[in-house]
Design a protein that fits this description.
InterPro entries: CEBP_ZZ_sf, E2_Ub-conjug_enz, E2_Ub-conjug_enz_C, Znf_B-box. The chain is mainly alpha-helical. It is built from 25 helices and 5 strands.
């Protein structure tokens, strides 16, 4: 006599108890009953644009009306869609203030207006009919305002810190780090993505939902058991995951917060964590667990705002208390003086703003977290500024250039896919480095928006073969709009724009916001080793034997530095590195692809030995 498993049509059988039981292989989600599958297998359903909002991004108030297209755009979207060709000549009409007022009344937010600079939109070899993938049904994103490296002239420094602190995660305490190690250990041994993100074994979507629930429960059970054995035993008996909801939310939030503050950490486990949380946000899983595994990231602003202590960020001492103290080119006396001034400022602020529920230690933690952000910017953003300085010093178009120092490239020569003369390549490199600098300056904000897109309950993903294996293809409307805002600002700053301004997001090039963020956290891995090598060459040349080698091989240290920089500026920005002719090129992400391609060919360069002499080990985060 055969024993039948639970019927796929019986919703009562689709319970957590049966899924975690022995006969789970016969269980399918009720959605498999002849109905078209949803979720990752189908496109998002388009919805009507809310009245008064941009027809393109749909989350910012419309500010201009294109009289030719008869569509309403925000300033950023209009500049992106009308950047070349006949569209560039479209007449516009500013919308009345009542239009923006109406949008503000509906959602309570209005984006900061930016005046488009049409002269900045130069030639563009991208698709003129570029489509921003994904339609979000979520509430409009918060007001987008790109902050400068320092507060703008005439603005309050305190308000700059207040706005910045909204996207600075709180540094982990010693007790929290214990749970972080526990989470990392669980994710290291987990095969979650190997089992879930697969099209093999004939598993339908309905059965894959059951598998992901079992895998998710196994990971969460292991975490509780490792943290508290008695509590873990009770969980195995009662299967009551909801009772430990706070624990799960806290431990998953710790991992996310730690990764944002330290992009070079959790390089293999963070992807598993995000994909696990992404699946936990699906309605099927949330209904069975009866809670959400996701909670907001704890930031400096959230902690201070809960205790009405945001005035601390407006205090004049906050600049001293959060400054980064470095030793390069400074005397020990000056360093010690700055250390003491910083310690006094921290103690003064912690005692001044201490109150019930907000201890001095927590205030110190907030101030140290802001200091961590400054350190992050110096390591990640400042190499872009140093490379811009090198570019202007050695290759400015006003200087006479011979054939050896020219940045001119030709398609098909040396692997290049672009054809630029010296002036055009100079402008192309300058705008690329400027854009990278702006992205890294606001990387924490981009990361917050990327996680909102990834963990959205309304924007589902599709499992697809993108040519680089199976990937979760998911639209990222919030991240995409922020990137277009940053791009618009960079275009206005450099004055002209060479090449394509296409931003890949939610397609086969950049499947989702996680891979987008991962690409741009690699910039410092490329630029920092180059900057370190260039800075060490003069001191290296003081050794007679090495000086003789440099003079014989390159003529002088200046010639050596110029050759390294020239080769990087030419072939690190030549549109190469794609798997086929249609990808990479001069698009926004293709610039980073060609830079990585140059890094892969470094060992074939004749100056590679100079890199090794300065202590270079690779572009993988080690030095």
């Amino acid at each position: 006599m055969s024993i039948e498993g639970p019927s796929i049509n019986d919703n009562s059988k689709f319970s957590l108890e049966n899924i975690l039981g022995e006969n789970h292989e016969t269980i399918e989600h009720p959605s498999a009953n002849g109905n078209p599958s949803g979720g990752w297998d189908e496109e998002a359903t388009e919805k009507l644009v809310a009245e008064g909002y941009c027809v393109e991004c749909e989350d910012q108030p419309a500010q201009v009306l294109c009289e030719t297209c008869l569509d309403k755009f925000c300033e950023v979207c209009f500049a992106a869609q009308h950047r070349k060709g006949s569209r560039k000549r479209h007449a516009t009409k500013p919308l009345s203030s009542g239009q923006e007022k109406k949008a503000k009344t509906e959602n309570g937010v209005v984006a900061k207006s930016e005046v488009p600079n049409e002269d900045a939109m130069d030639e563009d070899d991208g698709d003129d009919e570029e489509e921003w993938l994904g339609i979000s049904s979520e509430p409009p994103a918060p007001k987008l305002e790109i902050l400068g490296a320092q507060p703008a002239l005439g603005t309050d420094v305190g308000e700059w810190f207040v706005e910045r602190s909204k996207y600075i995660p709180l540094r982990l305490t010693l007790g929290e780090r214990k749970y972080l190690r526990l989470l990392e250990a669980a994710l290291n041994v987990s095969e979650y993505t190997d089992k879930i993100d697969t099209l093999g074994f004939g598993l339908s979507k309905a059965k894959r939902i059951v598998h992901q629930i079992r895998e998710l429960c196994a990971i969460m059970s292991g975490l509780v058991l490792a943290a508290d054995y008695k509590q873990g035993q009770e969980l195995f008996t009662d299967r009551d995951f909801e009772a430990n909801a706070d624990f799960y939310q806290q431990i998953f939030e710790l991992g996310r917060r730690h990764k944002i503050m330290n992009p070079d950490k959790m390089r293999t486990t963070y992807g598993k964590l995000i994909y696990l949380l992404q699946d936990s946000q699906t309605p099927e899983v949330k209904d069975l667990l009866s809670f959400s595994c996701v909670k907001p990231i704890k930031t400096v602003h959230i902690v201070l705002e809960e205790h009405c202590a945001t005035d601390l960020l407006r205090d004049k001492l906050v600049t001293v208390a959060t400054q980064e103290i470095y030793s390069e080119g400074r005397s020990r006396r000056d360093i010690q003086k700055d250390i003491k001034a910083k310690e006094r400022a921290i103690e003064t602020l912690s005692s001044k703003y201490e109150r019930k529920g907000l201890s001095q230690e927590t205030i110190r933690q907030c101030l140290y977290s802001i200091g961590d952000n400054h350190a992050f910017l110096r390591v990640n953003r400042d190499p872009c500024e140093r490379m811009i300085a090198y570019l202007k010093q050695y290759f400015h178009p006003t200087q006479a250039k011979d054939s050896k120092t020219s940045l001119a490239i030709r398609s098909g020569k040396g692997g290049a896919r672009l054809s630029h003369d010296h002036s055009k390549q100079y402008a192309y490199v300058l705008q690329s480095l400027t854009l990278w600098r702006e992205i890294l300056h606001d990387l924490f904000r981009l990361w917050f928006l990327a996680e909102q897109d990834l963990l959205s309950e309304n924007v589902s993903y599709r499992l697809r073969d993108t040519g680089q294996g199976l990937n979760r293809v998911q639209a990222a409307p919030k991240t995409s709009h922020m990137m277009h805002t940053i791009l618009h600002k960079a275009q206005q700053r450099v004055g002209t724009w060479i090449g394509s301004s296409v931003i890949h997001m939610g397609d086969h090039n950049v499947p989702n916001a996680l891979l987008f963020i991962d690409k741009y956290t690699q910039i410092y891995r490329i630029l920092l080793p180059i900057c370190n090598t260039l800075s060490l060459i003069p001191s290296l040349a003081q050794k007679p034997a090495i000086r003789s080698y440099i003079d014989d091989e390159f003529g002088s240290t200046e010639n050596l530095i110029c050759e390294i920089l020239g080769d990087f500026f030419r072939h690190g920005f030549d549109g190469s590195g794609a798997d086929n002719f249609f990808d990479a090129g001069s698009c926004i992400d293709g610039r980073l692809t060609s830079a990585w391609n140059w890094c892969g060919s470094l060992e074939k360069k004749r100056y590679f030995h100079v890199f090794l002499l300065t202590g270079f080990l690779g572009f993988d985060g080690e030095w």
